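Late entry, calcium ion complex.
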Amino acid sequence: MKLTVLLVEDDRELRATLRAGLDVEGYQVLAAASLADALALWTHAAASGPAIALVLLDLGLPDGDGQRLLERVRREQATPVLVLSARDGDGQKIDLLDAGADDYLVKPFSLGELLARMRVALRRRGLALLPAVTHYVRAGLLVDLAAHRVVRHGQAVHLTPTEFKLLARLVRSAGQVVTHRTLLAEVWGPEYTAHTHYLRLYMGQLRAKLEAEPADPQTLLTEPGVGYRVAEADSDTDRGLHMPS
Ligand code: CA
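Prediction complete; structure with ligand written out below:
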């Protein structure tokens, strides 16, 4: 069965390109060129189908703020929302991520990038229905969330409690960006959301312990001005059962 994607984009050319690319990949596309059209399609789909599996949401719409659609989606469904952002749309992009969008892409992006982000978002929502992810495995790094254990190339790595909390939060969203505000609120507490220097310090410590070249990280990635992203786990191992003892 085809998954239905709601594509909200007022740029005619980009909308047509994305629609064609997603169609080839086997998605059914509902396309909206304005906030009003998007809200109408969402309402119609909720009432009589097809169920919308994922929303691609452009930030700058001619008749209003894309955040209104995001708020509507979050009130009603767990449907993943990917924000399509212009390079100068940083502030609003962060607001939308903090308001519950799953991820974002900065224009121009390739269809390959978009499809990869869509797969992560769809899989994450699927996993939310299953028992929580307990392991993260990537390129010789193993993180066992339940046992609070980190192993790199077979060697146990000692992390402080705060380092582990930060790493665990990122690993739980592996493949997706997590904003500064979310990380600070969830790792340090809601009163610390302005203390981005904590993040720089602790991410530096984690990279020193976990990356082969801390200055050129391959797993603990920076999303400039937005937050951090742990690279996607090696395929089929983020729920892996095997940890060396
Ligand atoms: Ca636009």
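The first helix runs from residue 12 to 24. Will revisit in the morning.
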